[in-house]
Design brief:
124 residues, 3-stranded antiparallel sheet, 3 helices
Length: 124
Amino acid sequence: MDITPAVPENRMLIDSYGPGRFQVRGIAYQGPVIVFPTHVVPWSLTRAADVSLDALSLVQQESPPIEVLLLGTGERMEMIPSALRDTIRNAGLSMDIMKTGAACRTFNVLMIEGRRAAAALIPM
């Protein structure tokens, strides 16, 4: 029995990640990126300390809306201020913060499940 999950052709999957880079659906990206269900965009942030509501505006503008935002903070998990987390939550975004590797793997699971997720990824 084949148990390979069926992933729609238009869904992004993160193939690999490494120091300063990501590969998504066979395309290499250097530096930080935001991976949406159907596309990838370069992102200007290089540190979790710089995360702001403005830095996440592309996620807020996505249509249909994103259900879950994964924030990959690099090689180590770094928290963002609780006031900012509250502001992001009040703006309608559910955000999970984790190491970048964990965010990549979690994003792929959410894509296989057909969820509306995005991953804002700071490279390792």
